[in-house]
Amino acid sequence: MIGPRNPAPEPPQTMSDPAELLAAYLDFYRDAVLRKLDGLSEERLRTSVLPSGWTPLELLKHLAHVERRWLEWGFAGEPVREPWGDAGPDGRWHVAEGESVEEVVAFFTTQCRRSREIVAGARPADVASGGGRFAPPAVRPTLGRILFHLLQEYARHVGQLDVVRELIDGAVGE
């Protein structure tokens, strides 16, 4: 089980700097993902309730790879092993049977920490490195564009987790 988490408030309504807003909302949604998974047994974390078949734990691992792919490999241009993750034979997100919940949570939190470090050293108008994901001839997006993409990815997946959680145990919101 993922440990209990107190709901984090949304960023203050007085925050107006776009870079600060993007970073603060990303942290809000990163925390929301973990809150949505809090209290689920290991069996529930590893079991799908959806026709598509993905599990809550697989979604968490997917989001860790999203962070890595867009910021570490993408924006920073650092070499990354398996930037698209280790998909199973069906091409879906995959968590190995022997991989513990704690390992997946640690991978996610470590990747989020690394993403914050990368973002802290740059400005939204900075263009992604020419290596890694955006090696020529790829178009090199700005950090602001990448962060906006990550924000919408998290918002979508948190919404999916809302539905999953409601199907599992009736929990809604937060």
Automatic annotation (TrEMBL):
<dbReference type="InterPro" id="IPR034660">
    <property type="entry name" value="DinB/YfiT-like"/>
</dbReference>
<dbReference type="InterPro" id="IPR007061">
    <property type="entry name" value="MST-like"/>
</dbReference>
<protein>
    <submittedName>
        <fullName>DinB family protein</fullName>
    </submittedName>
</protein>
<dbReference type="Pfam" id="PF04978">
    <property type="entry name" value="MST"/>
</dbReference>
